[in-house]
Structures are given as structure tokens and as C-alpha cells.
User: What shape does this take?
Amino acid sequence: MSLPSSFGAPSRSGIPPLEVRLLRNGISESVHRVHAVVCDARGRVLMRAGDPQQLSFIRSAQKPFQATVFVASGSADQGQSGDRGLAIACASHAGTAMHAREAFRLLWAAELEAEQLQCPVPEGRTSPLEHNCSGKHAAFLATCRRLGWSSESYLQIDHPLQREVMKRTGELLGLPAAELVTARDDCGAPTVQLQLAQMALLYAHLGAGEQPDLERLSRAMLSHPDLVAGEGRFDTELMRLGHGQVLSKGGAEGIQCLSRVGEGLGVAIKVEDGASRAKHAVALHLLEQLDWLTPMTLEELRQRFLQPAPHLQLQVRGELRFD
Assistant: This one.
């Protein structure tokens, strides 16, 4: 597969970014600029607001694609991980006992110890299992155990595991892995810098249901949204209330990605200043414009995420336009 010529071409002007305003008792206090794009599984930019070529690290929105090696290698099946294990491998979780147990089960099945996890111990916690990326790291280690790769250097970009992750990501984008720009994420694993439209393309693939490994991961996330984030968190509540229609996965620094399940459409959102409150507001705004959720579901989500306090409200200005 090759990306269309619009990737890397100069961005056309005339479609402004979205704006998210924080209103305090109805008076504007802060403004966030937000870029958003909708792509299909062929990489075509269908709609956008702002610049579809905006560069950013994909951060934790990369996790389902990092987990493809766990599935494709047979590690998930060998450990009888099931959908719960696949969901925790894709998670940015709250570090509750439930989340830590699921990450530990991946290690236990592969005869590994929690001490082998190289994600940090969160402040105020006692174990790396409580880190929000512990499921991803546990899946990394289980894959290394099955394939006979070193477990000491599994986070290095030249490790066979990380080379395979980049190879698979590049294949989905139609790019050689060597062209992907990487940096260290906060959990220690490599993350990749992409155009916003490339992130949307990845999520179009994730929701399309056409590739078995991605379909398994997508189904697991939708079946167990409580494991993907946690009670009251945006990704969990959106997938729970959306009844399997929309897959949602956020990343740090204002990254939010969505898939329309079964239709091969992906959405990627980037808040210029990295504010999470703005990405959630824009996600709901776009879901309404795209008609991906019912008005009742959207209203419930707005009540939860657009009014952080009785005297505060988030308001989105602008809309997606056809490219």
C-alpha cells in the first residue's frame, strides 16, 4: 500500500483549526487551538479542520499497534490472554488493583516477574504494575519470552521487538520503518512522530475489521473499555456508552484518536498546547458532526466532560470541512 500524494504536499489554506474556549460563568478565560482530520483506510483525507500534516508524537494512541506483535507472534494465545489481556495491552489505565492484576496475569502466563517491567513506579505507588503503561510492557515482555529475545533491553529502538513494531506501523502507513522518526515516551518505550492524517489512517485500519490482528485488538478494547482507561475516564466512558460503535484511545499532549467501527474511518485530533480537556471537547463536537453517536449518548458524555465545574464550561467553535 502507498500513501496518496496528499501526504507530504503543502497544506491548503482556508480551513481553520477548531477553537475550544473555557468559559467561567459564561466569560471566556482560555482558548485552545485544535487540528483534526478524518481519513479512510486508503489514506485519503476526507474532512479536516486545520492542518492534516500537523506533526506530533502519537504517544499512547500507538498502543494498539504496538500490541500487534503480541498477537501476531502467538504470545497472546500461548498465554491464553483472552480479550481482557489484549485490552490491558492497549491500555493507559488508572493503576487500580483490577488493572494491575490484568497486567500481572500476562506476566504470570509467561513465567515473568513484575520486577522485569521497565516502566516507572508511579509516585505514591509501590509497583510498576500500577503504572498506566504496565499492560503494554507486560505484553512486550511476554512477546520477548516467546520469541527468545532479550528482556533486559526490550525498550531500546534497535531491539528486535521495537524493530518489529516499527515495521508493522510502517506497513500500515505504506512507509519503510527506517523513515519513521522516534523518541522516548515517558514510560521508556519508543514512540513515533507522525502527521495527524497518518494517525487517522492507523485508526481507520484499526476499526475497519479487515486485518485479523487489529480486529482482535479492536474487539477486545470495545468489550472491556473499563480496562483501557478506567471508571470515569474519557476513553472508557465513550466506548461504554457508544455500544461498540466508536473506538477511542487518547495520548498525552493533546492527542485523541477515534475509529468508526466497521466503516474504515479514523479521526485524529491534536491540541496545540496539549490540553486534555480540549481534546475531549473536540472529540464530542466531531462525533456530533459526523453523526457517529446518538444525541442521548452525546448529551450524557457532554455532561460528564464539558462541565468540569458548575461555573465552568467548554465550548467548541468551528467544524470539519470536506477537503
Summary: The chain has a mean pLDDT of 95. The chain has one domain: 18-322. The chain is about 40% helix and 20% strand.
